[in-house]
Structures are given as structure tokens and as C-alpha cells.
Amino acid sequence: GACKKETQKRSLGDIVEAARQVTRSLDELIGHIKTSPKQVRVTQQDQELETIITTSDRLISYQGSSSEMVRQAQVLAQATTHLVSHIKGEADTQPDNRDRLLGAARSVAQATTKMIEAAKDCQGRPQAAESQMALRTAAEDLQKATTEASADQIERRAIQRLEQAARVTASNATQTIGAANAAREYITTSHTQQEELFYQCTETAEYVPRLISSIKQSQNAQQPQEKIMAQSELVRQCTEVLQPCIRLVDVSQNTVPVVSDQSSALRLTTTSQQLSEGLAELRTALTRAQEVSVSMNLDYAIEVVRGLDDELDQFGRAAQQNQLYPVPGETAEGASTQLTTSTRVIGSALAQMLSATSRRDEQFVGVSAHDAAEGLRQLTGGVHGICATRRDAPSEKLIQSSRSVMQSSLQLFENVKVCLERPGDAGSQERLANVAKGVSSSLKECLSCLPGQQDFDAASQTIETMSRSVNISNIPPSARSYQEVQDDLVKSASRLTEATSRLVADTNKEPAVLRESLNNFVHTYKSFFSITLETTYHQQDQAVRQQMVSGIQTISSEASRLLSSVRASHTEPNNSTSRQQLTTVARSLAEAVNRLIDVCTSGAPWQNECDNALRQIEAVRHILENPVQPVSDLNYYECLDTVTEQSKRLGDGMTGIAHYAKALNMESFCQSVREVSNAVCGLAEGAAQAAYMVGVSDSNSTPGRSGLIESAKCDRSVQFVREVCERITARRYNQQQILDDATAVAKHTSTLANVCRDASNRTSNVNAKKHFINCARDVASSTATLITAVKKLDQSFSEQHQSECSQSAQSLLSAVNSLSAFVQSPEFASVPARIAAGGRQAQQPIVQAGKHMLDGSCQMIGTAKMLATSPKDPPTWQRLADNSKVVSESIKSLVSAIRDKAPGQNECDSAIERMNTLINAVDQASLAAYNQSLPARNDKSDQGYHQQILQAASQIQERIEGLSIAAKREAENLGHRVSQEMGHFEPLVDGCVGAASLSYNDKQQISLFDQCKTVAEAQLQLLYACKDAGGNPKARDFHTAVDEAAGQLREALTELQMNVQSTASEAGVVSGMVESISRSIARTDENVHTSQLTNVSFVDAQTRMVRACKEITRIAQEMVTKSYNDTHALGSLALELSQQYAQLAEDSRLAVAAAHSPDVAQKIRSAVQELGTGCIELVKQAGAVRAHPDDQFSKRELTKAAQIVTEKVQFVLSALHSGSKGTQACINAASTVSGIIGDLDTTIMFATAGTLNPDQSSDQFSDHRDAILKTAKALVEDTKALVAGAASNQEQLAVAAQNAVRTIVQLSDVVKSGATSLTSHNSEAQ
Q: Is 970 left (phi over 0), alpha (psi -120 to 50) or beta?
């Protein structure tokens, strides 16, 4: 027995020793892998650069004692000294780059010297705030000089990191697709999820090969131009692959609960988590690569355009040989839309680029050039698609026009580059403007080559030719009588209105149908134009004739605008902004026709008024034909209010018609007819918008998105300003007219400035925010110049002043055109909804009621017209009563239909019923557990259920905000939001029941059931609150209930997540926390909803972020300690770390949106994402240590990860500091001034005691008087600059604060000297 025990003991010792050897071998293998050539190699120079950046960031953001700042400065100086030596060494080995490298070394050395001097001053005056500020500024300058000197090195490292992250993403995506395809056969309960998973795998699989190809191209590129193209292509492919992969992760994780095979579900879970983690690293690497590669974008654009021009040349040759074939997925409709959209992208990007060039903003020039190049790439793809799929397309002409676009764009890019290199060239801006006009002309020519555009060109040419032929002194004679012409004119106007309505309704129908409507419109317009000229011929009054001619020209202009709008809406059927513009232009044309009829006809006023009303109603009939596009910005309940209000006005108008017809009061009768027609049009628009909302709210419809700007308001103002500027430039005005025009222009440019300001406040794109502000400034400045010139012209109507007015008008026209081109970007356009068949069916009650109302109103107005001629005719009165009854009944039906079809109510009812069922299921399971009769589930492990709970809870958390917003102000989205959130509650409840069934801890079981039920009940309360609020912005009382219920649901979910994550983390399972951090990193790139920007300042976000950063640092340091003495605490610390980072990421979105410059915003986003990847690594290492408490290698890795997190926290703090230089300078200045006040109090005490005397008896107050006055005046100017800086940016505020505090110090010194010179004999004056 003893021998057997000894043998067992020896065997156990052998096993332990073997395990140790395996551990050592694994550690050595991991170390070898980390130094493998396949990894990104870190050189000595890289380490020194990292030290400089990290230390300078720490120094810049440090707010402690001066001694620590001086110590950091010493470390920084030592690292920069080594870096300068390395750069000089490189200069000796690279003769071609010798001068550039030596210059870089010199700039770093000079910046280092200045920092050392600032450090010495700080060491000598440790309590002086200004010396600390000076040291921080010197550190910033040194960091900037180092970054510029090592730009190539930083860029190389960023691209290498991006290549590695892209490789990992491609691998993880491929594995996820494989796991998803393997799991599909085990999805038997949800056919929809199976199809969605298949679709997402197919979509992602299309991007992966292109990503791999771009990685290889980037690695194999040797020549500088090759590297630019390859690296930019890598960035583009990485950007494109992000969203498909994110959707694949979401769909995969949502599908896991319905996969019946456990191994397939586990594999899908694992691969999707790895992909999510890889995407977090890819996003961070991509942000960093974009940050350091901005300078290459102008060169990249030039190379791209050259390559695209070569592609187009190849397309042309292939087309000539009939060998141009479509690529898979390429369609004629898609290609036409792509071509049209690309022209808008190009125009907007070039407008931004020219504006940035004039301000010499090289970074924004690069960004705009990159966007323009991508637009040109889209244009090339569209050209290929059209030429390959449309045999009726003029391929040769289209390709030639496209090449003209490329060549003129290339010329523009090269001119911009020259302009930036030669800032003193006076004629550069004019050359740029001329070249830009060439690009615009080529784009228009390119669009004119689209199939079907020739019809529009011919129609537009016909209308323009007819308009130019109008001459008041040469009106063609008419052979018909005046009465015949007048009767025909009214009929012709009605036909033109009907043709307009038909053309608008047929805009997005088949080409043959549209062509027929277009030809009918042109034919009708010709007839109307001819009859209008005949009417003008019979008019002998020259003033009235002039009004007629002006009216004809206005109608011609509106008809041309209508054709342009129809063309735009037809080529971009999914652009709802174009559709709204089309509706607006159609109404403008109808109103212009009515105004002309009022001038031309001499019949009874009531007849004209009734005819005008009928035409006005006919002009809006088309909006109820197919309400698949929004016609206004009204929400659903505003539509209901509008319909209710307009129905009251209609009732008043109908009463007025009957009353005034009986009283023979024709003037009031006409006013009532106008009220009726306006009310009917308002009812039609409200009904159409409400019908659109109902269609959108259907569960199978896809919601749209409102545009960033009010396009209709912007277009009206732009059009008016253009007309006035062109009139002023051509000098077609008299003295009074130009004064009136200037007043009107000021109102419209004020509107444009307000539109820009609102858009700037609403967008979270910092570059767009900046450009909107610049556009508003340019428009306002040009308007002020024009107003000044007009005032001079009013005082002296001379040739010189007319010339000044013309120049000012051209300047304003240029600013307005630039703004117009910029806002045409698809980024700012609204995205239309896709209405399903069920949605169309739900629209019918509203649409039919609206149509009946229109028909009844037209019949009523026609009867009223007859009643005015025979007010005593009983049958006519009876017919009017019948018509009024029809209208009243149709309005009641309309209001009832809108109320009954309120969006989201059915979905809320279904969700409430389902939640009650789920709560009952939880109660039943809890009761079974209490009775020890809950069967253990064996379809998944407890880890699998925990992961399912965390995944579902995370999805619900992310959707609470969207549901709350929909419940308060977006009725059309309420049903969609409810359905999306409810889709994750069944997996949540199922996971909680499954996890509880496998738990042997009764307390854990009870806790899970209680928390699950709390979450379900909180969701139920939220659903009740959402149903009551219904998306009505005016239901303020219910909004409070929604917010409270949403807050309770968040708290309940957080408690459930913490419980589950705590249980999982105790076993070393950290996948849920890694997933949480990965999602938080992804959130940093998302735009902030406009409602979140209200009352949010950068300082508020900064304060919360600093607090979170301190907590993250504390947790990282505590993790290191606990890894050696209390590994059980690592799980809760990792959970706390993930929660703190989630809060930091959320606040960073607000900080980025509120940042004053794109540079600061980019730094903050990049630093927070970098910190996120560090947190992921730290959490993973914490899990490894928790699972293997005795593994020393894991503990060392955790220590390294914690150190990296601490360093990356400094990056975040430094980025925040760069966004608040002015605020920090004011804080430091306040501290300095506080010290000065204390010093002056001490001096006053000496003066009161009579002991304040000069050192020299010869010292006189007159010697100090001038210095005191001079310094006081300087302080006044500095105070003004400080106030201006507070309203400007942080840099100006910082400079102003430093100057002000410096002057205050000087004033304090000279005042003390002056007071001392008065001697103690004059203590009161002292």
C-alpha cells in the first residue's frame, strides 16, 4: 500500500512538472509570435515617438504640482533628444531627403529648447499658474513639431495597423459566414430569421474579397503614387466593409436563440463575438489611418481621376466593339440613379473644396477632394452601367462627356494645389471659379445624355425659345375678337393646370407614360402661350400690357423650373426632397397662371375667382394619387390639427358663399371662395401627409428619414436671390425697383442664414457644421456689401455706383450658388420610406375621403359660380346644399379616418398582450422553481444562456432611446420601434428561465426570476406610456411618463446585466463585457440625435468624460493589485470597467458633436476608440487571470494591459484639453488674478498702516502716471478681446485670457509702484 501511494505521489508530481513545462513552452511560443515578422514590428524610433506622444499628453493634461510637470518635461526632453539623433542619422543615409529631414530635426530641437526653458521657469516659480500654462503650451508645440517631423513614420505605422486589423476582420467575417451557413439548417422556428441571415451572409461575402485584394495591394505597393492609391483604396474598402459586418454580427447574435443544434449555436456565437471584437479594432485603426492620411487626399484625388479617365477610355473602346457587358447586380434604373446622385455629390464636394481653398484650410480641402473623388468614382460606375444595360443610350456621347468631367475636375484639383502652394497669387480664385464652371457644365452635359433626357431638353428648349420671343413692342396680331380670346384663355388655363397635375402624377411612372404627359404639357403650354399673346394684343393700356408680358415671363420661368423638377424627381425617384420641390413648383405655376388670368380677363370678378379656385384645387389633386412621398414636414398629429383647422375654415367659407351670394355682396363672395379654395388645398396636403405616415407605419414598410435642411424654404430664397442678382448684373432696374429688390434680398438671405444656422446645430458632422457656418457668413457678408452699394446708388445714380452694385450682386450670386451646391449633397437629403402593400391598403380610407372632398369642393364651387349669376334660382340653391353636404360628409370621414389610423396603436396593443403572456410565463417558471419542479434545460449550457440574456438585454438597452423618441414625436416610427424591441424580449425571458433551470443556487434562481420580471413589468409600463403618448409632440404630460418608464427599464436591465455578468465573470467568462465595449466603440461613430444636442455644451460632456477617465484609471490600477491578492474581485472590476467605458463613449459622442473644430472632434473620437481597444484587452486578461489564478504569464499580461489603458486615458484627457484651451486658460487666469488680489490686499494693509514708502526718496508719482494709463488702456482692449474670444473659438479665448492676465499683472505692478511713490504721508490716495 505504501509503495502504491508513493508511486501515485511521484506520478502526480510528474504531471505537475509536465504541466509547468507545457506552460513555459506556451509562454515562449506566445512571445515568439509577438516578435514574428508577421506582426507590426516596433523599432527603437517607434518607441521613442510613442514615449514623446504619451509623455506630452500626460504633461498637457496634468493638473497637479509643478514638480511632476518638470519631471515629465525631463523625460520628454530626453526622448526628443534621441529622436533628433535618429532623424539626423537618417538624413546621412538618405541624400534625397537630407534637407527635409534636417529641417524636421531642427524644428524638433527648437521646440525642445523652448520646452526646457518653460520647464526651468516653472521650476523657478512652482506656484505661478501662467508658468504651468506656458509649459503645457510648449509641450503642445513640441508634440506638434514631433508629429510633423515623424509624419511618414506615423502614417506607416497606422497603415500597417490597419492592414493587420483588416486581415483579422476578413478572417473573422469568413468564419462567421461559414458558421452562419452551417447553422441555417437548424433554424426551423423562424423562416424570416433564416432568410435574413442568408441575405446578410451574401451581402458581407461580396465585400470580403475586395478587402483582401486591397490589403495585398497596400502591402505590395512600392512607388509613392502606388502607395497613395493602394492605401486610400484600403481605407475605402475598410470603411465599406464595416456596416455589412456590423449587421452580420447583429443578425447572427439575434439568430443564436433559435438555432436548435447546440454546437452550431456555440460556434455562431463564438465567431460573431470574434468578428465584433475585430471590428472594434478595425474601427479604431481606420479612424487613426484617416486621421494621419488626410494630407494625402488631394494627391489621391488627382491619381483617382487620372485612373477613372483611363477607365472611361477603355469603356469607350469596348462599347465601340459591342463588348461592354454589365457586371452582376448592375441594372439600368440603378445606374441612372447612381449617375444622378453622383453629380450631386461632386457638386457639393467641389463647392466645399473651393470655399476651403479660399480660407486656406488645407485639411478641409483634402477631405472635400476625397469626397469629390469618390463621387467621380460613382459617376464612372453609373456610366458603365448605363452604357452596358441601355442600348438606347448615346454611349459615345455619354462617355465623352464623362471624360470631360474627369479632365476638368483634374484641372481643378491641380489648380487648387497650385493655389495652396502660392498664397500670394491674386488671380488664382478667378481661375478656380472658371474651371469650376467648366466642371458644372460638363456634369450637365453628362446628365443630358441619360435616356429620356432628350425629351426634357427639347421641352425646355421650346419653352425658353417661346419666352425669348416675347417683346412688348412686337406682339403678333390676333384675328379673333377680344371676347372669344378671353373665353379661350380661361379654358386654356384650366387645361394647362390639368396637364401640370397629370405630369406631376406621372413623374415616376413608365418612360412611355411620362413622355406622353410631357408632350401633352408642352402642347398645352404652347396653346396657352399663344392665346395669352392674343389677349395681350387686344390690351391697349401699356401698363396693363407690361403686367401681362411680365406674367408670361414668370409663367415661362415657373414652367422651366417645373420641367427641371420633374427631371430631377424622375432620375432620382427615391429622393423625397426632389418630390417636395416638385409639388411646390407645381403650385407656384398654378398661382402664376391665376395671377395672369386676373390681369388678362375683364369678366365678372366672381367668375374669375371661381375659375382660379378650381384651377388651384386641380393643381393639388395629384398629391392624393399615390402618397408614397412626404409632402410637408408635418408629423401625424400636426396633420390631424391641420385637417381640423382647415375644415373649420372650409365650413366658414361655405357659409360665406351662401350668405354673400344671397346678399349679392360679390366682394365678400370672392373672399369666401378664396377661403374655400385655400382650405381645400390645405386639407388635401394634410390628408396626403397623414396617408403617407399611415403607410410608413405599417410593420412591413421601411421608415424614411427627414432631411437636414428645409429644402423648400431654401430653394425659394435661392431662386429669388438669383433672379434679383441677375437683374442687377444686367442693370434691368430703376432706382425704386433696386431699393425694393435690396430689401427683399435682405429678407431672403436672412432666411438662408437661419437655414444654415439650424442645419449647423442639427448636424453632428463637424466638417458640415463648419461649412454651414462659413456659408452663412459668406452670404451675410455679400448681402451687406450689396446693401451698401445700393445705398450709394440711391444717393448718386452714377455709372460707378451701378458697376459696384453689379460686382456686389455677382459676389452674392456666387455665395448663394456655392451654398445651393453644398446643400444638394445626398448626405443632407431626406431618405424616403418604402411603403408595403399593407401600408397602401391602410392608406385607402384617408385617400378616398380626401378625393371625395376634392370632388365635392369642385362641384360646390362650380355651383357657386352659377349661383352668382342667378341668386334666385331654387334648383341651384338645392344643388349647392347637396354639394355642401357631400363636402361636409367627406371631411367627417377624413377626420375620422385619420383618428382611427393613428400609427403604432395596434403594435402597442399586440406588444402589451405579448408582455402579459411573458410575465405569466416567468411567474409559472418561478413557482415551479419554488416547488423544486422546474426541469433543467439541456439545450444550452449556463454560459450559453448567460450570453443570450446579455445579448438580448444589450439590444433592448440600445433601442430604448429610439422608442422613447418615437413615442414623443415620431408617430410613424412608433410601431417599428415597438416591434424591434419586442423581438428581443422572448430571447431574454427564455434565457433567464433557462439559466435559472441550470442554477443550483436557490438565491441565484430567485434573483434571476425577480429581475427578469422587473424588466418585463418595466417594459409593460413603457408600452402603456408609449401608447398614451402615441408620438404626439403636444402630449407633454405623457412624455414625462415615457421618460420615467424608460428610466425604470434602463435601471432594471442594468441590474439584470450586472447580476448575470457578475455570475459569468466569477468563472472567468468576459465575452459579454468584451461585446459591451465593442458596441460602445461602434457607438462613438454614430451621429447624435438632434434632441440630444439641446442644452448640451462641450464643457458638460468634458466634465463627465474626465470623471469617467479617472474611474477607468482607478479600476485598471486596482485590477493589477487584485490579480495578486484577490482574483475573485476581478470579475466585478471588469464589469465596472465596461460600464464606465460605455458612459465615456456615450459622452464622447456629445463632445464630438459640440466640439468647435473638426481636429478636436477627430482627436477625441480617435482617443476614445483607442482606449476602448485597450479596455477590451484588459478585460480579456482579467478573465484569463480569474480562470487561472496561478498563471504568472497572464498576470504579467494584465499588468501590461493596465499600463496601456492608463496611457490611453492620457490621450483622451489630452484630446479633451485641446478642445478646452480657452476654458482652462480662463481657469488659470482666474487663479492668477486671485493671487494678485491677495497681493494687493496685503499692499493695502501696509498703506493703511502707514508703512508703504518708496525705496528711493526721488521716486515721484508723475514717473508712473503714464505707465498706469497705458497699461489700463491695454487692459480695456484685452477685456474686449476676451469677450470676443468667449464668443469665438477656444484658441482665441486662450490667447485673449493669457494676454489679459499678463496685462493685469503689469497693471498691478505699476499701480503698486505708483502707490508707493505717493509715500505714507498720502495713505488715502495710496
A: beta
Contact 1161, 1155 (CB under 8 A): yes
- Nearest one of 412, 409, 421, 418 to 380, comparing CA atoms: 409
Q: Mean pLDDT, to the nearest integer, of 555-583?
A: 80
Measured CA to CA in angstroms, residue 403 lies from 310, 376, 397 at distances of 9, 10, 10
**Angle made by CA atoms 559, 562, 566, in degrees to the nearest 5:** 145
Q: Give the integer Cα–Cα distance in Å for 620 and 679.
A: 12
Q: Is the pLDDT of residue 253 over 80?
A: yes
pLDDT at 850: 92
Helix, strand, or coil here: 788? helix
Distance CA 106, CA 83 (A): 11
Q: Pseudo-torsion of CA 1051, 1053, 1059, 1060, nearest 10°?
A: -160
1036: number of Cβ within 10 Å: 10
Q: How big, in percent rounded to 5, are the helix, strand and coil portions of the chain?
A: 85, 0, 15
Contact 1186/1065 with Cβ under 8 angstroms? yes
Residue 1241 burial (CB count, 10 A): 9
Per-residue pLDDT tens over the stretch 949-982: 888 888 898 889 889 999 998 888 898 899 888 8
Largest CA distance in the chain: 136
Residue whose C-alpha is closest to residue 139's, from 129, 151, 131, 150: 131
253-272 burial, b at 16+ Cβ within 10 Å, e below that, comes to: bbbbbbbeeeebbbbbbebb
Q: Convert the pLDDT of each residue in 688-734 to its tens digit.
A: 999 998 998 888 887 777 777 777 778 888 888 888 898 888 887 78
What's the chain's length in residues?
1326
Backbone angles phi, psi at 1202, to 5 degrees: -65, -40
C-alpha span between 771 and 756 (Å, rounded): 9
Q: DSSP 3-state assignment of 676?
A: helix
**Helices and strands in the chain, H and E counts:** 42, 0
Long-range contacts of 201-207 (CB under 8 A, 24+ apart): 201/177, 201/248, 203/244, 203/247, 203/248, 204/173, 204/176, 204/177, 204/241, 204/244, 204/245, 204/247, 204/248, 205/177, 206/244, 207/237, 207/240, 207/241, 207/244, 207/245
Contacts of 899 (CB under 8 A, 6+ apart): 640
User: Whole-angstrom Cα distance, residue 467 to residue 529?
Assistant: 9
Q: CB count, 10 Å around CB of 392?
A: 10
How many Å is the Cα radius of gyration of the chain?
37
Q: 605-620 vs 482-505: helix axis angle to the nearest 10?
A: 20
Q: Write b or e for each residue in 837-867: b if 16 or more Cβ atoms lie within 10 A of its Cβ, otherwise e.
A: eebbebbebbbbbbbbbbbbbbbbbbbbbeb
Query: Cβ of 60: how many Cβ atoms within 10 Å?
Result: 24
